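Me: I'm a chemist; would you kindly supply a protein sequence with its structure tokens?

Assistant:
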Amino acid sequence: MSFEKLKIAPKIELDLYNSINRIPFSLKVGNCPILSKPIYARNLGGGNFIEFRFDRTNKNLYEMSLVSVDADTVEDIETNEINCQKNEFHNCFIHEADSKLEDSVPMKIFRDKKSICINWGIEDQTNLEYFLLSSNCFLGINADSYLASVILTNLLQEDIFNIFGF
């Protein structure tokens, strides 16, 4: 993965579980291209499944979805602290040859009253570098530049309930 600074925040669209959207959440970044063959990066760890879609031509991330949640992996915490430049927006790019496109490592999900954090393949969140993708979404990469975390912030309690169902 690599990141490029943007001058302005990208347009985002966050869809949460409801009668139309039947997955916990889907976040679209920028103008979503109409693609017949996106590049997928996925992690299926137990009952949790997260998927990222990249534009095959430009290699940039345009959508991520939390497809399913195992309630046993969700932990309530006091607060999610994020250590990154909160006013610098970034575009995320994939390098297929250097990326884990399919993985099956355990995931842990943390939530507080206004945010959720989804981690996979890591024990300690402090060793990640976070990039601001949109006004309420951070992506974390490990030392090998692999995606390892997604944090959604500034959510309403109703949003948290819609994502998890509890």
